[in-house]
Every structure is written in C-alpha cells, then in structure tokens.
Fold this protein.
Amino acid sequence: MLTSPSFSRVPGVPVVLLGLTVALWCVHAADAYEVGLDFSVQAESEATEFRDASVLLQLDPPKPFSTACVSVTYTLTDFDGDGASLTGLGPNGGAFLAQYNGWAGHPLGPQGTTFAECIFSMTAGPYETVTTTFETWDVILETIEDISVLYWFELSATDIAVGSGVFALIPEPGSLALLIVIGLAATMRRIRCRS
C-alpha cells in the first residue's frame, strides 16, 4: 500500500525532476529510512574529544537504488571569553559522518562507505556564537543494506557545542522501474535495427 509522503524543504539545494529544476524536498514517507543524532556538550577545563554514533539501521530487505540526503547543523559558543574552536576528527577530518553498508561508529573506526563527511572546523570569537549548516543529496546506485551516522570532534576548553544531523534514505522503486523501461526500449530498438 502506498502512503502519501510528507515533505520538508532542504533550502538552497537544486534538484532536477522531470526536466525541471526545483528546490530539494526530503521526502518522509512510510518507506523512507532515517538515522540521526542530536547533541549538546560542554568541554571540561581542557580540550575535550566527543564521539557518538547512531544505531546501525538495517534495511530489510536491502534497497538496490535510493536517493539519500544529509542535513547537519552545528552551533559553537565561546563560554569563557578566549574564543572557541571545534575540530573534526573523522576519517577525513569531518565532525559529522554519514555512511552506508557498514557502521560509522565501529570501535576500530568507521567501516562503511561514506556518503557525506562535513563540518571540518569551526571557530568563534570571544563570547560569540556561530552556526554552520551542511546539506546535500545524491542518488546511490548500489544496494544499500544499512545506514548510520557519527559525530566525532574536539572542542576547546569550557566551550559549548550543540548540533544535530540526519541521514535519510528514500528508496526509489519508481526510478528503478523507469530505468528498466528505458533499458527494454533500448534493447527493442537494437533488435529492430538488426532486422
């Protein structure tokens, strides 16, 4: 049974849909999958490392073709008047990591395929608060068995960081069907050309 999806706009990201460029809307439908993390932390009297991962959300059955989107917001506040910094500690230096086909939070290090790694560093002046966001989407053309996210960063002494990040996966049986129809049409054309 198909259900009516709800939509939430991801600002500033163009999408081509049926030949028209429109703003990206993340679809929240019954067949969509989503993992995310929210945090609010304050460093101790010296720089402090923070790391946490979502659960490994397993797709049953695995999805062969999906659109994925990531939306992340981090806010950094200087608490003691000496400026603040947040430095990502992920595999490529990001503070947020979204992965599929392997757990991002594995104790030996992220084990999946990276969809997005972002928020590499942030700085705030004395008693200042700064916010940064990251949003992206893409089509994943391989079978997806699971998804997960990780935040991992170092925060300067006594300062505060607040953030949230979501990795959403929208299976696309309609798009897969369209590819099959195009493939069949191309095959039929080749057969006709040979005759």
